[in-house]
């Protein structure tokens, strides 16, 4: 059933398919000069995808319908986190694939691309770790409507910080495999902890 829930959310992304393609085409032909441009684009994929999914659920009041199915609440939470992680992965993979064209520009390096995409991935994960616990804690309230904007603010800020730190020419972190692996492992650990926290909150909530 987890697979079906993930597929349900992924099917909604068809509505954003044209938007993603236009953005990718724009990214491929434009020689961007802003270090934050690629990071922002990488972050926008999970943000737009999750906002579409949450808006659909709020509009159709589908939460009660899903909970009426023979599912444990933790399965619903896990499915949502898997869906979010897919969006974050796409947010890193798609821009990176297309932006390899930018390497033809002498002002662009692999380290610049990695710093920007790592910032986008960090921002996407932070956004998820803020929005989903709130989503599973409250019902259809104003707090649920404000959560995405809080997530965007903290996600963008954290992504920008990581991107700038990794772009610092005096910082050896951007070339250290150990540091990069440990940083990504730390993000994954925090992501799993956020999921477990959301499961606990959702189990305690009265629907």
Description of the molecule:
The structure is a single chain. This protein is mainly alpha-helical and 207 residues long. It has one domain (2-204). The chain is built from eight helices and no strands. It has helices at 2-12, 17-29, 35-60, 62-67, 73-99, 110-137, 142-167, 177-204. Helix 3 runs parallel beside helix 6, helix 3 runs antiparallel to helix 7 (142-167) and helix 6 packs parallel to helix 8 (177-204). The model has no long low-confidence stretch (mean pLDDT 80).
Could you report the average pLDDT, rounded to the nearest whole number? 80
> SSE string, helix = H, strand = E?
HHHHHHHH
Q: What is the overall shape?
A: globular
Tally the helices: what do you get?
A: 8
Instruction: Estimate percent helicity.
Output: over 70%
Total domain count: 1
Tell me briefly what this model is.
With 207 residues, the chain is mainly alpha-helical. The chain is built from eight helices and no strands. It has helices at residues 2-12, 17-29, 35-60, 62-67, 73-99, 110-137, 142-167, 177-204.
Produce the secondary structure layout.
Elements lengths: L1 H11 L4 H13 L5 H26 L1 H6 L5 H27 L10 H28 L4 H26 L9 H28 L3
Keywords:
207 residues; 80% helix; mainly alpha; globular
